[in-house]
Structure prediction request, 435 residues.
Amino acid sequence: MSRNKSRALFAQAARCMVGGVNSPVRAYKAVGGTPVFIRSARGSGIVDADRNRYVDYVMSWGAMILGHAHPGIVRAIQQAAESGTSFGAPTAQETALCRALSRAVPSMQKIRLVNSGTEATMSALRLSRGFTGKNRIVKFEGCYHGHSDSLLVKAGSGALTLGVPDSAGVPACVSRDTIVCPYNDSDALARVIKARHKEIACVIVEPVAANMGLILPDVSFLSAVRELTARYRIVLIFDEVITGFRFTFGGVQQLFGIAPDLTCLGKIIGGGLPLAAYGGSAEIMDRLAPLGPVYQAGTLSGNPVAVSAGLAALAALEKADYVRLNETTADLCDGMEAILRMFNLHFCLNRAGSVFTLFFTQRPVRDFVTAKTSDPKAYARFFWTMLEEGIHLPPSQFEGNFLSFAHTPADIQRTLKAFSKAVAPFAKSRCRCRG
Ligand SMILES: *Cc1c(COP(=O)(O)O)cnc(C)c1O
Prediction:
């Protein structure tokens, strides 16, 4: 498989873009080599600059749950664009989208649309601080909530891959107000909250963690988080930027039966365009300008093209068969487990619905510390064999693999064939070690 065109495009890109990319993980630092440049995509398939075809499991980090170039979304974008691409004034479609989001995620009584997940979480923090009059926030180790200053402390995703959990340029006086607790450890959270609840404005959590690889929450952990925050009048923010509309039509909060005070959405709700949202009870949301004293604004917020794409995405998702999507993913993961057993390999495969991560460690992965026991060199070898076999995976161990409604049983078979080839060397190298 030749990737000469991608290599040349990357060399050109590196001269005018930092690291040749507009978001760090795309630069392939975690797996070595140079990135694949994308030419086009449709359904579950992606085509690179050299016209190699891959089954895609990046899916724009989960945003493309309906598959690439979904006809309903493409049509909505074309029609919206012909009526003007930005007004800086309200439209009826924004109301339609926010009503649809409220219906799907009932804890979001009132909503504000923004352009990225980062903006949603950053604004939800400011609102929590403005609402409670307190400054400190609690986040969990390895959870990623975008790149705003307060949240770039012990963060996951690209920040984790690069080994710079604390970014330069974040003033110590800002990160000092961020308290970090281990994921899935409600005792640690209880200790922190009991000692400092008078200073804590909010607790923000990924209800299913998907930015240190995929990690499932203990149900008792999430219910303890809800119980503690309610008892001490601390705002609970569920960052559902990945989990929203991923497992069901709505938030993962409905599946767990836990309602947060504020919810952040992104990725899927924009149908592949830059769109995100945050929302919650009217009591909290009405503290925002223009009704309240907490300021937050955006020239392109509620952009008509993005909103139309979001509406089309929600319309398609409302009719979509999530049970089948989860079954397709289970088939793939069962197949991978069977291959691992055949080779007598004991890597940890975590799955929730249509997301999974294979960790190159023998330990069960349930938090940041156990995620870090995974061998990044092993992941890099695995990644390159899969790519060579036509399977496009995230170029980092610490990300989720995402299926879409467009992934077919034929894709699964092709992926399993590649998987056999990619993990076989690990069985062999272990035999050599034993002599
Ligand atoms: C992707 C992500 C964000 C950030 O969203 P951007 O649109 O990249 O700014 C925030 N939180 C979670 C859980 C995410 O997965």
